[in-house]
Amino acid sequence: MDADVSSTAELLRALGNEHRLTILDWLSDPRAHFPAQRDGDLVTDGVCVGFITDKIGLSQPTVTNHLQYLSKAGLVTSKRIKNWAFYRLVPERVEEARAALARLALPVQRP
Amino acid sequence: MDADVSSTAELLRALGNEHRLTILDWLSDPRAHFPAQRDGDLVTDGVCVGFITDKIGLSQPTVTNHLQYLSKAGLVTSKRIKNWAFYRLVPERVEEARAALARLALPVQRP
DNA sequence: CATCAAGATAGCTGAATAACTATATAGGAT
DNA sequence: ATCCTATATAGTTATTCAGCTATCTTGATG
Known about the structure:
Pfam family, one (chains A, B): HTH_5
Keywords (chains A, B): DNA-binding, Transcription, Transcription regulation
Shape of chain A: elongated
Domain HTH arsR-type (chains A, B): 1-109
Protein name (chains A, B): Metalloregulator ArsR/SmtB family transcription factor
Oligomer: homodimer
Low-confidence stretches of chain A: none
Strand order of the largest sheet of chain A: 1-3-2
Number of strands of chain A: 3
Number of helices of chain A: 6
Largest interface: A-B, 41 and 42 residues
Distance between the termini of chain A: 22 Å
CATH superfamily of chain A: Winged helix-like DNA-binding domain superfamily/Winged helix DNA-binding domain
Strand content of chain A: 5-15%
Structural class of chain A: alpha+beta
Mean pLDDT of chain A: 93
């Protein structure tokens, strides 16, 4: 556990928001949630901010904020093509969160 | 996912704090982290607030605050014996968090 | 009954979150 | 060069978080 509690906490904090969870869910299967893009592949490059903004019903700056928050926690990466920004999920980082919780979920019962 | 995003977010928010993570880690194996108690079994009843307060180095009201936060998220339960309050981990609830993250960690790759 | 000990509650403060509008920046198209 | 479009940044506001000290409540004990 003490193998970086603070980074784990930051990670879980980033996951602890309704809108961010929704966005991550969408990004985990972009083709199921967004139309195809002209200038970048949904899966390979990621989803553009505009699509997420339209679908989630928040202002564009607020969505950018959430995406930057996720990015700081390492949960997404971004890529710029022309003047679009594409955000892609980093599933390994989600897995790290799961791994950190694994030991808590299985408490040691000493005799 | 939409099977209660808001409760999942609350759960992950509760997990997203260094001190609360530390406390939960201790509660996942109380005998490894605390001395035996006179008036309640560490595992069966939980750990008393005083032990946690001493070990974590925060004020007692702050610790009570964190424990109540965890309790609202369903991550711990409390039991009062005499004038001690014992807090015990609810590993099933941690497992719920893991389950919610499981689908994100395994993104669908459609052909 | 008076006192002590354990925890909870009240009340305060500063920092971080989450939202918005308005504006800046940068690339394409006319 | 100008305009349009996509995103980022600035700046504001209200709320929540995380900590503290001081006090209340409750049970045990002299």
